[in-house]
Specification:
- It is a single chain.
- The chain is α/β, with parallel strands linked by helices.
- Helix content is 32%, strand content 19%.
- The chain has 9 helices and 9 strands.
- Helix 6 runs parallel beside helix 9.
- The model has no long low-confidence stretch (mean pLDDT 91).
Length: 240
């Protein structure tokens, strides 16, 4: 009984490109974003990979190089503080490692990880490469080419079911830096328990419709998240 009484409330965080943009990582959909320079079909689909793997490797090698030069921002750092009071699970649509570098301990990457490579044929052969480039001709132990460990358009999102189950357990759900326009990740919000508290932190308009107990904080993550974190911690402490 005592163990159950001391159980931390489950708090799930869903983050999107907006939180990383404040660290200097360029997003794909915003004005001046990466898609204006590259076709989605050329650099983010299995078809593009088959057509010109050298181009795809160069695209992600440049992304990896840029990632090495940026650091977590105030929003990433603030989320770590929640772990002292809540059972925190971070679900991110981002492929960077800024949550890890900030210190979050339970992170689920929906769309893969930029600092990893995998065999193009043996999908379970995954390697941590850090910020090093992947070269054409660089292979796994079975002799097949390494590709970015990224979920491309047209590919299954293998962790979506795990993410859905986490959201179903959320007593508090924070959605940060995402317009909730990309599925299947955008649908996760609707799996949260009806009476759970939900917060959307994003400067854009709320397009989710009427959702019970949803508070929209229309501001940048780096400014709003530290304040929200302190608020949630204070509320938790007041109940103990």
């Amino acid at each position: 009984m005592d163990k159950e009484l001391n159980k931390k409330p489950v708090l799930v965080v869903l983050t999107g490109a907006g939180i990383s943009a404040e660290s200097g990582i360029r997003t794909f959909r915003d004005s001046g974003g990466l898609w204006e320079e590259h076709s989605i079909m050329d650099v983010a689909t299995p078809e593009g990979w088959r057509k010109n793997p050298a181009l795809v490797l160069d695209f992600y090698n440049q992304r990896r190089k840029q990632l090495e030069e940026v650091v977590p921002n105030a929003a990433h750092v603030a989320l770590v503080k929640l772990e002292n009071y809540f059972d925190v699970h971070v679900i991110t649509q981002n492929v960077d490692d800024l949550h890890e570098r900030a210190g979050s301990t339970k992170i689920l990457h929906l769309h893969g990880e930029l600092i990893k490579a995998r065999s193009e044929r043996y999908e379970d052969n995954i390697y941590t490469i850090g910020y090093a480039p992947i070269q054409l001709g660089q292979t796994c132990e079975h002799g097949t080419q390494l590709r970015p460990h990224i979920v491309w358009f047209g590919e299954d999102v293998p962790m979506i079911n795990t993410a859905t189950e986490l959201v179903k357990q959320a007593e508090i759900l924070l959605v940060i830096g995402t317009s909730l326009n990309v599925y299947p990740a955008a649908g996760l919000l609707y799996h949260a328990p009806y009476d759970s508290r939900k917060y959307l932190v994003d400067p854009s308009e709320n397009t989710t419709g009427q959702i019970y107990r949803l508070t929209h904080i229309q501001d940048l993550a780096g400014k709003a998240v530290p304040k929200l974190v302190e608020q949630l911690i204070a509320e938790y402490q007041s109940t103990q």
